Amino acid sequence: MEPSESPTRELTLEEAVSFAILLQKNEQFDEAHELYRRVLETAPNHPRALHYAGVLAHQRGRNDEALALIERSLAIEPNQADWCSHLGIVFQSVDRLDVAIDWYRRAIAIDSSHANAHNNLGVRKPRIVKPSN
Fold first, then answer.
1. How far, in Å, CA of 60 to CA of 8, rounded?
2. 72-115: per-residue pLDDT in tens?
3. Which of 5, 14, 77, 86 is packed most tightly, with the most Cβ within 10 A?
4. How many alpha carbons fall within 13 Å on the CB side of residue 62?
5. Sign of CA dihedral 113, 117, 118, 119
6. What is the DSSP-derived secondary structure letter of residue 4?
7. What are phi and psi of 55, to 5 degrees?
8. What CA–CA distance (Å, rounded) separates 105 from 75?
9. Phi, psi torsion values for 81, nearest 5 degrees
């Protein structure tokens, strides 16, 4: 190995998901999608990968896919207030306000100070979900 070369190593699943979220935040959607796909190919029930792949699907206008992925993530980790709020946003964007309200309320039940869920209860026009962490 040349002195200027450093050894390479594979990312852990958690590192890969964190990197995909960073790509997603930087609107490198194709790259993020590919990384989520690879993580989920290795670990099909990885909750963070499922969730943020769902957020990405929503950002790309694929709301049916977003709902399925985010619901799967919440089936694995049900006490994630942000994830409940994100699911509410997706339901609101497909004109399912009744279901969206239930998810916002669930987020607030998990975290009574969840500002986004409180705010979303009073908003008529949904916003696009973006990764928060």
1. 32
2. 999 999 999 999 999 999 999 999 999 999 999 999 999 999 99
3. 86
4. 13
5. positive
6. T
7. -60, -45
8. 17
9. -60, -45
Question: Which amino acid type is present at position 119?
Answer: N
C-alpha 25: how far from its chain's center? Answer: 11
> Which residue reads 């990885």 in tokens?
46
Continuous H helices in 1-133: 13-25, 29-42, 47-59, 63-76, 81-93, 97-110, 115-121
Q: Domain-by-domain residue ranges, the chain?
A: 13-121
Give the pair of three-digit tokens for residue 92.
């609101």
CA atoms lying within 13 Å on the CB side of residue 22: 6
Q: Taking the model in full, what pTM does it have?
A: 0.85
Assigned token pair, 55: 């957020």
Inform me whether the pLDDT recorded for 133 exceeds 70: no
The CATH code of domain 13-121 reads 1.25.40.10
Quote the pLDDT of residue 11. 84
